[in-house]
Structures are given as structure tokens and as C-alpha cells.
């Protein structure tokens, strides 16, 4: 297990605002991470520091074993695609691709061209004249074709329709399986990307409140579905994290593995056990972590 990123006791303050508040974690090689959290949680600030576009107030940071600031060897191995990527005013789509090809050592020109066709981007058009969604698509093309050993997408979807987002996820998974690398996706669309994520880091109020493998998180809860009255009977005495009624039916998310006695009981009542959505779990586990954190502070 080799760490691509090692962060220890990192802090970043903007005046009184503690945007990053004593954060420590590791990012391993060749995995897809989800960096999740509510608005203003500190994700973008953290990603700016990881990619040497911002300075930490204190703490240690290593990327590929070295400090990233003004470290060209490290920076050429990082591709950071931001929500509002800026390009020089005179650049066409083709110019962006040419500059990226020069910068990223592992750039794949054929892959870039096939992505340009997939996303129907006009090569000669000035980037200033691209629609919001087309600009996001261009960021995605650069991020994927860079094949950078550390590729970070910070909410790369602004203006992208569902078809284009699905194309992004499919191309990312196909290419990642042939060319494994470390990918960090920061997003609010947790359920949409959940099939991609191998590990989840949740940030809240500048702190890491969850840092776990996605499979482990999934094993923490299950959903039970069926006739509402029977589901309610089943839920008695159990820790319920979410209820979704539909007509006379009810689907509820419950803490537990959903095997053994619980499964037996549910099946005996004619109820169905299903996996629970990652989004529900992240929201719930985040709340639990917040409560435990506050109790810890008071103790
Ligand atoms: N340049 C700045 N000056 C002052 N405060 C800032 C600055 N940049 C960020 N902040 C504050 O730091 C906190 C973290 O912001 P950040 O942009 O990192 O959050 P985020 O998790 O990326 O949010 P979102 O999901 O909405 O993009 C917020 O309270 C924000 O207002």
C-alpha cells in the first residue's frame, strides 16, 4: 500500500474562518476516492492546497513523497480540473489540447480525440464561446486524457446534462480499468458516482468526519421494503436512518448488515431486503460522527 498523498494536522484559516481544521489522511495509489461534504465544508480549499495552488497555515503535506510547491516533477503528475476552469481568452479547444499534451507526460492524443468526438466538442471554437456544459466537457476531456497519476475533479459537471455525465462516468471507468491511477472526485451527486467510488472521505466544517472504504460503509446499513404496516412492525426496536413511503408501501434504511436474523425475520414477514444508497449512508454517518465529535469535545 503506497500513499500518493499524506496529510498530517493540516490547517488553513481565512481570518476567523477555519476552512481546514487539523486534517490528517492518506490517499493510496490506484484507487478512486470520493471527497464529499456539504457546501463550504472545505473541500476546494483542501484540493487547492494538495495541488499547490494554495498554502496551508500549518501542518505537513506530501504528494508523491514530496512537498508539491513549485515542484515541477510532482506537479506534472497532477491534473486538477476545477468547476470553473479558466483558459487564456485567445485559446481554442485545440489550443487547450495542445498545451495539455505538452504538459502532461502521459497525455494520450488518440484518447483525447475520441473523447472530443464523444462530447461533440468543436475543435476550432474559441473556449470563450463554448456553452457552460461544453466548457465542463472540455475539462473532463483534459482530466481523462492527461492520465495523470493523480487526477482530481472538483465538481466538474456545471451545466452538464445527464447524458454527458453518464458518458463521463463510463469513459472514466473504462479507462481506469486499463490505466489505473489515483482519482479524486469531489461531488454533491453521491448516488450518481457511487458505483465509481472505492473509498470515501467526508469533510465537514473543515474536519474529516468519515474516511472509509465504500464497501465497509455499504455494509453498515440495509434497506427493507414492503407493505408499510409490515415494514413498521419489522422496524420496531431497530435503528432507522431513512423512511421513504410510496402509496401503501414503505422502504426504510436500517443500521445493520441485513443478514442472519434480520434477513430471516424480514423474509418471514414477506419483506424484501435491498442495499441502501450511499448518499443516505454518508448523510447519516456524517450526522453520527458530528454528534460523537461534539460529545467528545464536551467530555
Ligand atoms: N479566499 C477566501 N477567503 C475567505 N474565506 C474563504 C476563502 N475561500 C474559502 N473560504 C471559506 O472557507 C470555507 C471552505 O470553503 P471551500 O470553498 O473550501 O468549501 P467547499 O467544501 O469546496 O464548498 P462547495 O461544496 O460549496 O464548493 C467556507 O466557509 C468559505 O467561505
Your description of this structure?
The structure is a single chain. By secondary structure, this protein is of the alpha/beta class. The chain folds into 2 domains: 3-216, P-loop containing nucleotide triphosphate hydrolases (Rossmann fold, 3-Layer(aba) Sandwich); 220-298, Alpha-Beta Plaits, CATH 3.30.70. 37% of the residues lie in helices and 29% in strands. It is built from 11 helices and 13 strands. A 6-stranded mixed β-sheet has the order 5-6-7-3-8-9, with helices on both faces. It has a 4-stranded antiparallel β-sheet with strand order 11-12-10-13, with helices on both faces. Strands 2-1-4 form a 3-stranded antiparallel β-sheet, covered by helices on one side. β6, α6 (162-178) and β7 form a beta-alpha-beta unit. α4 runs antiparallel to α5. It is globular, with a radius of gyration of 22 Å. 35% of the residues are buried. The mean pLDDT is 92. The structure holds adenosine-5'-triphosphate. The site of adenosine-5'-triphosphate has 11 residues, from β2 and α1. InterPro entries: ABC_transporter-like_ATP-bd, P-loop_NTPase. This is ABC transporter ATP-binding protein. GO terms for molecular function: ATP binding; ATP hydrolysis activity. Keywords: ATP-binding, Nucleotide-binding. Residues 5-230 form the ABC transporter domain.
Amino acid at each position: 500500500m503506497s500513499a500518493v498523498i499524506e496529510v498530517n494536522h493540516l490547517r488553513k484559516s481565512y481570518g476567523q474562518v477555519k476552512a481546514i481544521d487539523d486534517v490528517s489522511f492518506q490517499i493510496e495509489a490506484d484507487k478512486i476516492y470520493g471527497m464529499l461534504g456539504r457546501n463550504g465544508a472545505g473541500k476546494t480549499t483542501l484540493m487547492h492546497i494538495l495541488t499547490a495552488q494554495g498554502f496551508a497555515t500549518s501542518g505537513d503535506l506530501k504528494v508523491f513523497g514530496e512537498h508539491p510547491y513549485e515542484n515541477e516533477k510532482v506537479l506534472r503528475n497532477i491534473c486538477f480540473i476545477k468547476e470553473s476552469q479558466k483558459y487564456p481568452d485567445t485559446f481554442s479547444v485545440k489550443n487547450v489540447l495542445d498545451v495539455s499534451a505538452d504538459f502532461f507526460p502521459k497525455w494520450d492524443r488518440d484518447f483525447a480525440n475520441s473523447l472530443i468526438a464523444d462530447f461533440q466538442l468543436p475543435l476550432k471554437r474559441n473556449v470563450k464561446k463554448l456553452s457552460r456544459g461544453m466548457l465542463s466537457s472540455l475539462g473532463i476531456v483534459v482530466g481523462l486524457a492527461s492520465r495523470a497519476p493523480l487526477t482530481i475533479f472538483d465538481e466538474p459537471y456545471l451545466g452538464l446534462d445527464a447524458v454527458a455525465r453518464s458518458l463521463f462516468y463510463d469513459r472514466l471507468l473504462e479507462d481506469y480499468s486499463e490505466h489505473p491511477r489515483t482519482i479524486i472526485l469531489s461531488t454533491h451527486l453521491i448516488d450518481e458516482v457511487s458505483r465509481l467510488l472505492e473509498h470515501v472521505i467526508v469533510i465537514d466544517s473543515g474536519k474529516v468526519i468519515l474516511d472509509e472504504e465504500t464497501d465497509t460503509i455499504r455494509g453498515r446499513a440495509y434497506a427493507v421494503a414492503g407493505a408499510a404496516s409490515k415494514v413498521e412492525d419489522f422496524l420496531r426496536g431497530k435503528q432507522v436512518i431513512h423512511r421513504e413511503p410510496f402509496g401503501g408501501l414503505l422502504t426504510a434504511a436500517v443500521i445493520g448488515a441485513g443478514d442472519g436474523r434480520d434477513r430471516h425475520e424480514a423474509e418471514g414477514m414477506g419483506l424484501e431486503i435491498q442495499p441502501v444508497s450511499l448518499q443516505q449512508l454518508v448523510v447519516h454517518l456524517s450526522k453520527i460522527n458530528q454528534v460523537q465529535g461534539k460529545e467528545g469535545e464536551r467530555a
